[in-house]
Structure formats: structure tokens, C-alpha cells
Amino acid sequence: MNQTLTRLSTGRRINSGKDDPAGLISSERLSAEIKSLEAESRSLARADANANIAEGHAAQMSELFGELRSLQIASANDAGLTEGERAANQQQVDSIVDSIQRFHGDATASLDGISMPGTGNADVATAYDDALAAAVSVRSGGENDLSSGNATAAMAALDAASTGIATSRGRIGGFQKNVVGPRLRSNEIAIENLSDSRSRIADADYAVELSHLARQEVIAKAGIKVLGIAANQSRSILDMFR
């Protein structure tokens, strides 16, 4: 009865090694596997969050390159553009390039939080560097600034940079979708199944334990009743001899 009450109070069938030595070993092994999977899942969740940050920086860079391209197209119309307007456009270009430089640093640093397979991180970092070089080339004094007359070269450089950034965003998204996501889901399923197995081994079955408790209480009460009957019979026999 004490063992049953202990199991009901703790919710565990195995409360010490003597309850089930083999079951305890299996339960502890399953617990270790579950903890390992939970730790891996936390790391994967952090990688997924870091990938979201990295992709967000790349998205901002992509938007800025779109603005640079628009300014290049607007400034390529020599017939309808004054020198003052071209200078104003160049100022906007310079401001956008400054922003791209800041986002380049943030985007590159954010890659440290993810580990894409193969040369993924290095390829994305290279694409960011190439995009920055293209942006710098259209800044004031650059080989493709608005006063250089190299509109065709500037457009080609900006288009290549935009393509490189878009490809990088795709690689980061693919890493999340095809590497991190499936592994997280697999871990969740494994943890659920292992936890169920551990529960079957180590946790108390309340229905069984309650039936055991009821049985033990009946036996205890019956034993007390039998002892009382035996005592009464003994007294009756003694009374006969008096």
C-alpha cells in the first residue's frame, strides 16, 4: 500500500532503482536522448531566427539597389535633365550608397549566426561584397557616377548586384525551408515519441494503481475483520472453561 501511495503521489511508477532496475536504465537513456534533441532544437530555432535577420538585411539592400536603378534610369535622359537635377540625383545616390554600406556590414555579420551547408556562407558574403563594390562605383567620384556618362556600365553593375542579392536571399530561404525546418519538425516528432515511450516505462498508470489501492484496502479491512472474529472466538472458548 505504501508503494502504491508513493506512485500515486509522485505520478511515477519508478521512484527508485529497486522499483524496476531495467526500466530505470531505459527511462534514463530515453531522457538523455530527449534532452539532446531539445538542445539541438533550441540551436536550430536560433539559426532560423538569425536567418530571418540575415534575410531582412538582404531585403533592405535589394530595395536600396532598386532605388539606385531608378535614379540611374532617370538620370540617363540627358535631354530633359539639368545639371542641378543631375547633381541632386547624385546626392540621393550617395545617400543610398551610404545606407547600403551600413546594411552590408549588418548583413555580413548576421551570417555568423547561421551555418549553411557547403560554401553557402562564403558565397553569400562574396555576393554582398560584389554588390557593395557595384554601389560604390556609382557614388560621387566613382567610375560609374552620374557625371561619368557610363550609364550602361552602371546599369549592368547594379543589375548584377541585385541578382546576386536575390540569389543570396534565395539561398538563405532554402536553408530555412530545406535544412532547418525539416530538422525541427523531425526533432519534434522524435521528442514526442520518445517522451511517450519514457512515460510508458516510468510513469504510473493511475487506473491500475487506484485498483491496486482499492484491493489492498479491502484486504487490509478483511484482515482486521478476520482478526476480530478470531479474537471473539478465542474469548468464547475461554468463557466455556470458566
Can you tell me about this structure?
This protein has 242 residues and is mainly α. It folds into two domains: 2-19 and 205-241; 22-202, f41 fragment of flagellin, N-terminal domain, CATH 1.20.1330. It is 82% helix and 0% strand. The protein contains six helices and no strands. α4 runs antiparallel to α5. The longest helix is centred in the first third of the chain and has 55 residues, at 21-75. The radius of gyration is 38 Å and the shape is rod-shaped.
Sequence-ordered SSE layout with sheet pairings:
Elements: H1 2-10, H2 21-75, H3 83-110, H4 120-137, H5 151-202, H6 206-241
Helix pairs in contact: 1-6, 2-3, 2-5, 3-4, 4-5
Q: In one word, what is the shape?
A: rod-shaped
CATH class of the largest domain: Mainly Alpha
Describe the biggest sheet?
none
Radius of gyration: 38 Å
The total count of helices amounts to 6
Note the gap between the termini. Answer: 42 Å
CATH topology of the largest domain: f41 fragment of flagellin, N-terminal domain
CATH homologous superfamily caption of the largest domain = f41 fragment of flagellin, N-terminal domain
